[in-house]
Amino acid sequence: MGHEHDLVRTFQELLHGLLVAKPADPFKHVQEHLSKARKLAVPSDDMDPHFAIVGLDERDIDTDEDREHGKMCSPLYRVARGGDDSDATDEGPSPARISHKVPSKRRELSKRSELQRYKLTRELSTTWTAPPRVLCVTRRHLRKGKYVDFLGEYHLDLIQENGGAAIMIPRTALTVPALAEYLPMDGLLVVEGNDISDEVLNKYGCSAPDRLDGEDAMKWASDTEFDVPKDQLEFALMRLALDSGCPILSLCRGSQMLNVLRGGTLIGDIEKEVPNAVVHLKDASDPSYDSHRHPIRVLPNTPLASWFDKTLIDTDELSVNSYHHQGVRTLGKGLKPMAYAPDGVLEGFFDEQYNPSKGRFMVGLQFHPERMMDDYPGCKIVYEDFLTACKNFRKSRNF
To answer: Comparing C-alpha atoms, which of 231, 254, 219, 227 is closest to residue 325?
Structure first.
């Protein structure tokens, strides 16, 4: 307490001198008192006094040495296993889970956390600027009897290569009440997943498509099974992005979500509802599931035509992948078409206020450019323009 009292008194003297005594040389007065304050604040000669943190020293960081580890970590105890566990392991049985007791020295843990953050920022370049935060909700996958949350590294790599920070949000139900903790948001990427649930569509006042049943539903069972927690998270984030003007790149299922939130409607099943439909979705067991392509006609004077201009020289046609059995029926308010499949199914749209240089980017693509990097150079430009918009949106918000 004496140390802290001396530091407080030093700053009181500094303020008193400036406001009451009014020294002849204020600059010298400030320098003298700041020098005194630094000596009180700096816990170690090894630390740069210009970046000192009061009450912390190097010993407050965990090391691999047992004596240090023992100081900062609480004892461990094993948790009895009941039934299957949720640990994601590659091979063999999962190890018994370990849990920490509540630490008794919360103040020391807090000090350690502050110093760790301090040391991390010291390692960053002096010219470093915070990258735009692009939020992405994970997807659930059943693996070896356990659910695993994941997001394709195609997306993560493209976000990071173009200067963004990918913030992965767990799709679990308990994430919903804590969603605000993942903000601020400078961009939103919404990608593939299951069909959107009626429950969440109704909650947001959106039109629900006709649903398949019986054998028809079983054909696309992996898509027709609803994932309500994921829907809740992505609808909440997309509504927030729409309200704030935050850039949105929506792919496949994401484009369908963006369309209904703007008042559009959906085709419940292309194969059943669209005459002479091309194949938009192969069975997952088909060897050509990932290599399957179908043509689309790109409309001129659209972002899609701009991204693929090096390809669309003597043609208006691209060949794209396809992983969807649903699609856009009618476009939502303020959205304009960019491409159609031969059967008339919409394959891309954009917001009429589109302008990445001003941070405005709301795009829906029914295909997956991240899986077509070797097909066309324009696929990468989709993400480049998206991240350009995210950076400019961040600047406009003065973050």
So the answer is: 219
Token pair 């029926």: residue: 329
ω into 337 cis (within 30 of 0):
no
pLDDT digits (tens, 9 = 90+) for 98-146: 444 555 556 666 666 676 666 666 665 555 578 999 999 998 877 888 8
C-alpha angle 139-143-148 in degrees, rounded to nearest 5 = 35
Condensed to tens digits (0 to 9), the pLDDT of residues 234-289 reads: 999 999 999 999 999 999 999 999 999 999 999 999 999 999 999 999 988 899 99
Would you report the helix, strand and coil content of the chain in percent, each value rounded to 5?
40, 15, 40
For the chain, the distance separating the N- and C-terminal CA atoms, rounded to the nearest angstrom, is: 37
User: What was the pLDDT predicted at 213?
Assistant: 78
Query: The sheet that has 248-251: what strands, in order across it?
Result: 165-169, 133-137, 187-190, 248-251, 362-365, 346-351, 335-340, 294-298, 317-320
The total of other beta-carbon atoms located within 10 Å of residue 374's CB is: 7
Q: Which of 252, 324, 325, 347 is catalytic?
A: 252
Tell me which residue of 138, 135, 334, 161 sits closest to 240, measured CA to CA.
135
Q: Cα angle vertex 201, ends 195, 206, to 5°?
A: 120
pTM confidence score: 0.69
Q: Where are the beta strands (DSSP E) in the chain?
A: 76-78, 98-100, 133-137, 139-143, 146-150, 165-169, 187-190, 248-251, 265-267, 294-298, 317-320, 327-330, 335-340, 346-351, 362-365
Cα 359 to Cα 339: distance, rounded to the nearest angstrom:
23
Q: What angle do CA 294, 299, 302 make, to 5 degrees?
A: 120
Q: Is the dihedral of CA 331, 333, 335, 337 positive or negative?
A: positive
Tell me which of 155, 280, 325, 368 is the catalytic residue: 368
Residue 370 bears catalytic tag = yes
What's the DSSP call for residue 20?
I
- Give 167's strand partners: 135
Q: 13, exposed or middle or buried, with CB in 10 Å at 0-12, 13-18, 19+? A: middle
Of 263, 258, 266, residue with least CA distance to 239:
258
Catalytic choice (246, 325, 370, 390):
370
Amino acid at 50: H
In the residue annotation, 368 being an active-site residue is answered as yes
